[in-house]
Design goal:
The protein is an alpha+beta fold. It has a domain of about 160 residues: Pnp Oxidase, Chain A (Roll). The protein is about 25% helix and about 30% strand. A six-stranded antiparallel beta barrel has the order 1-2-3-6-5-4, surrounded by five helices. Strand 6 and strand 7 form a beta hairpin. It comes from Russula earlei. This is Pyridoxamine 5'-phosphate oxidase-domain-containing protein.
Length: about 230
Amino acid sequence: MSRAPRWFTRLEQAVTQNENSSLFQLATVDEAGRPHVRSQIHRAFLMPPSNPAHPLLITSTDVRTRKIEQIANADTVELAWWISATEDQFRVSGRARVFAAPGRPGHSLPPHRAAPDCAGIKALEALGFDWEQQRRALFDAVSERMRATWCRPAPGSVLEGGCDEANDWPVKVPKPSEAKTEKEKALAELALSNYAIIVIEPFYVDWLQMSIVPNCRTFFTLEGEHWKEEMVVP
């Protein structure tokens, strides 16, 4: 039986045991072949019980951002994750799939193209995993201030009234189950409708261990149900 890759065991441990280690950079490519990179917050790890060689990384986004279009255009992405507490750097290449609110643009993108190459996602879905339930659970887990960001106008849209226009935006939004007034309920539903998760299934990892002297660097390449390891010059 396959097992969890060594790089993932280290990454999960480092993130779980160290605060302020949830930020990484994610790169996508647009239709013109231009790269775009931005900081993302890690939301969860998923490990298919029947397929531990295919761990999944989950982050979140506003479904109206351009990264959604970019992932639809090219579902291969790369992230760079520096864990300062352990002095580990992970560069992870993988295929991304977007799970948005049912009926929203971007819902379950890419719909079919990613499935043949995403054994981890397929393994979970074969067990009846509910991605909409996962999306809602992660939405509920964030702060009220973070939820409020998904009630703003579309990211990147022009502020006709300048920065002062932001004074009219909501500051805190409760989760739907805790909304009391009609206004709170409307804001909670609006935020949830704009909230999407991005699931990344890695197929290549470059792990640099800078806490070791001399430094240690290893390439991990997914080959079927196993990860090939190759030590290289840092």
